[in-house]
Amino acid sequence: MIGEVALALLGEESGAVIADTRGAVWYWLVRPGTAADWSLHRVLAQGAFVVVPGRERKGGPGLHWRVPPSGARSLTDPDRLHAALMAANRAVKCCYRCDRLTSDPVFVADVHVASGADRAVYACRSCAERLSERPDVLGEVAAGRRALEGRAR
């Protein structure tokens, strides 16, 4: 799903893309070394290889061209690809209830943890409709303490 969103964001700016539906992996072709410092998604390092489908293989299942190569449209600009992947990664969330990816996430709650690094929790639309409001236990404790001390939030 992240690949679909990134490809939509790139539009005509995308170069060739190899899709492997069995492994749920997409490969954008970029100039070697231009994505070596990325940490957002897996990047194949020097010496790695990708099986390339035949030019006629334009549909699954399995390995195929999601965007076939053409003379002017073989490589993707690495800066634009990185920006599209970052935006797609922000747009697509995992439903905490069914563990499916959704491009239409519903914010469910902020989870407060002892480390202080709060975390937003999302659900897909169908799971969100079946969820009941869960209280923020740490928020209630903090509010109770403030009330005892005579302070407002």
Structure, explained:
By secondary structure, the protein is of the alpha+beta class. It folds into 2 domains: 2-91, no CATH class; 101-149, no CATH class. The chain has helices at residues 2-10, 78-91, 125-128, 137-149; strands spanning 17-20, 25-28, 63-67, 93-94, 101-102, 106-111, 119-123. The strands form 3 sheets. The chain has a 3-stranded antiparallel β-sheet with strand order 2-1-3, with no helix packed on it. Strands 4-5 form a two-stranded antiparallel ribbon. The radius of gyration is 21 Å and the shape is elongated. It starts with a helix and ends with a helix. The model has no long low-confidence stretch (mean pLDDT 84).
Q: Helices and strands in order, then pairings?
A:
Layout: H1 2-10, E1 17-20, E2 25-28, E3 63-67, H2 78-91, E4 93-94, E5 101-102, E6 106-111, E7 119-123, H3 125-128, H4 137-149
Antiparallel strand pairs: 1-2, 1-3, 4-5, 6-7
Helix pairs in contact: 1-2
